[in-house]
Amino acid sequence: MTADTTPAGGSRALLRQRRRRSVVRFVRRYRTRRAGLAGLAALVLFALVALTAPLTVGSGVTGVTDAPGSPLQAPSGAFPLGTDRFGRDLLGLVVWGSRVSLLVGLLAAVLSVVIGAVVGITAGHFRGAYATVLMRITDWFLVMPALVLAVALATVMSRSLGTVILAIGITSWPTTARLVRAQTLAVESRPYIERARALGGGHWHVMTRHVLPNVLPLILAQTTLMISSSILAEATLAFLGLGDPTVVSWGGLLQDAREAGAVSAGDWWYLIPPGLAIAAVALAFTLCGRAVESVLDPRLEVAR
User: Which of 167, 176, 274, 275 is the most buried (most CB within 10 A)?
Assistant: First the structure.
């Protein structure tokens, strides 16, 4: 009985040990990327600000009926970042807006990467007419401006966070699909894929047990890069007035500032804080994504 159970148990233990070693190796290599560490520290700070917003500023900061200040009040001791056109504290609005901007960016990026990964893996695995049709659809999305498609979807659908997430997610997946398909083709050309098929492995087994683990590093790196793009897209849609009017986001604050004439009036405190927040979080995700790419693919580090 020992001879029958030990190999299986030993193989599972060996697999867990290899996974732990891979994680430790990834962490050690990531720690050598100073830019990646700076981006990670900034993301942790933004995440803490967003998670603690109900405790630090409270949900009442978004109300317009009981605003504590006068409209468009310059920064002062009572209001460090001034007030908006309704007299609301801009510091509290920027802090509360981080919740919506980060949430929309994360969910839209996940949706985009999931669609791209499914299309890329299946197109690389099945090939033939199925892959041809998928790639032609992907090419159509690639040549069409993603922002124009997102604006069109957000215009014809109801104005809500779900619409914004859907509009960004289903218009920004083609790049991921192309990258994942190329990686899938490279993986399926290896000898162990042929052995798996010869031993009776079906399509689902090959895609989930052999292809997916090999493309996961690429998917992870692409996700971190897509989050920054999704946050910028959400801010753009909100700035164009296509976001959810019932919530506060960084892009929505910029749109409110534009409607209030903050640019022509010189009310810089209405424009700079949300703009800097968008730029900072996008840069942080980009730094993390580049660091993850260089850790998972050392050839990128050599090329640089």
Answer: 274
